[in-house]
Design brief:
Length: 437
């Protein structure tokens, strides 16, 4: 989306916020709730320590464009969600339970920063030791934030970085690599990236090329791709845009240093422009929980690509080759067929597609032992599916006597979807697999 700055002038009259930004905030709220529930599932844990970093905090309060109602910005969502979950979890425990959260709220605009201070004070979050308010660019505040987290000398500090930049240039890929290098097992990033804004201005103009260089994208959005894109027939422009969006999502993932990602798009009802919201992590479980959050919310969220495996896969050169292979005039050339909206219809299509693809993968591994976890981890990044979809397909294969699944010690056989575990071993019934194939 085009860069948009809110006017934070009057605490009693917060600026309007549109529906697509409210959806983004809802994803943040729902995921943080799920994140905390997963980490506190063991009732013996008496404390959860979190670091929550909001790199583009804004003024903290808005007014909805529809209904004219007050709407919390990301700092208040983080604070209130943690407070809510602390009370909910404590109510289920006999022993004292606490969530020790430390917050960094970074905002470069002085007016928005002062507005945020006033909002936090009005909401009862004033002069608290666990809240750091920083009036600076994210990239300027980033080294100090990282140093403070490291100085606590936690073995595996749990960090969520919310990097809701306006466009696509304010979060260098190098900073993402630093995060995942420092905290590989426990850091997660929610990053917005305005793919529409970038695509809208693709050209050979030197200003655009300089912007790509500054964003670390000149190796991907290069002269070859620019030539192909600007010469695309107008009636095929949508397909070309979808390919470039997939290329950008894949590139962000590759350059971030993360091992797992969830790319999805949120569309503005007014302008019809969409932006990429990408979740990055180094643990499959984090990826899976975010994916389940998207399916739970589903409204106004989109994922472009086919129903099964292989979305967002391939290297940049392959993407460019596909884009340039006269794809719009070749009847046999496969384009992006689906716009997935995380609904029941899409779930059925995904399970159907995986039912064709997963037996192929199992067949290819028949000479070696494959666990359910290996199947999931090696294939989860490039599909809209989560563990529930994979387990659904495995259950179908059990029922059809194509495979058997055992616990890691081979003492228990699995027959239900809910009993299947990450460490379970898939045993092949070779005759049936050959027939299935």
């Amino acid at each position: 989306m085009p860069e948009k700055h809110y006017e934070f002038n009057d605490l009693n009259n917060p600026p309007l916020i549109e529906e697509h930004s409210q959806i983004k905030h809802k994803v943040l709220e729902f995921y943080l709730e799920r994140y905390i529930k997963v980490l506190t599932a063991n009732p013996r844990h008496e404390k959860l320590k979190l670091w929550l970093i909001d790199g583009f905090s804004g003024g903290g309060k808005y007014t909805t464009a529809i209904g004219n109602k007050p709407h919390d910005g990301s700092p208040l969502i983080l604070l209130k969600t943690v407070d809510k979950m602390r009370l909910e979890i404590q109510a289920t425990r006999q022993k004292y339970f606490d969530i020790e959260a430390k917050y960094f709220f970074v905002e470069k605009d002085k007016k928005a920063f002062n507005f945020l201070k006033g909002i936090l004070s009005n909401e009862g979050y004033k002069n608290l030791d666990n809240i750091a308010l920083i009036n600076d660019l994210f990239i300027g505040a980033f080294p100090k934030i990282m140093s403070q987290i490291k100085n606590e000398k936690q073995k595996n500090p749990r960090c969520i970085f919310l990097l809701d930049q306006y466009g696509y240039k304010d979060v260098p890929f190098e900073s993402l690599k630093v995060i995942f290098s420092a905290f590989p097992n426990t850091a997660e990033v929610l990053l917005t990236f305005s793919t529409e804004h970038l695509i809208q201005y693709i050209s050979h103009d030197e200003r655009f090329k300089k912007a790509m260089a500054n964003a670390g994208l000149s190796d991907v959005i290069n002269d070859k791709l620019i030539d192909i894109f600007i010469n695309t027939p107008s009636h095929e422009n949508k397909n070309a845009r979808l390919f470039v969006e997939q290329l950008l999502a894949r590139t962000i993932f590759e350059k971030s240093g993360a091992k797992f990602f969830n790319p999805f798009f949120i569309t503005s009802a007014g302008s019809k422009w969409s932006f990429l919201l990408i979740h990055l992590s180094c643990h499959w479980k984090a990826r899976d929980e975010m994916n389940k959050t998207l399916w739970e919310l589903h409204n106004n969220l989109h994922h472009y690509g086919k129903a099964g495996l292989g979305n967002f896969s391939g290297n940049p050169e392959e993407f460019i080759k596909i884009l340039g292979y006269d794809m719009f005039h070749n009847e046999k050339q496969v384009t992006l067929q689906y716009e997935n909206e995380f609904n029941e219809k899409d779930s059925i299509r995904i399970i159907d597609a995986l039912s064709e693809e997963i037996p192929e993968i199992i067949f290819d591994h028949q000479e070696s032992q494959i666990t359910v976890g290996k199947l999931l981890v090696e294939n989860c990044n490039f599909t809209l599916a989560n563990t529930d979809h994979f387990k659904n397909v495995l259950k179908k294969m059990i029922d059809e006597k194509i495979i058997r699944i055992f616990s890691s010690d081979f003492k228990h056989e699995r027959f239900s979807m809910n009993s299947i575990e990450h460490s379970d071993i898939i045993s092949f019934k070779q005759k049936n697999i050959f027939n299935y194939r």
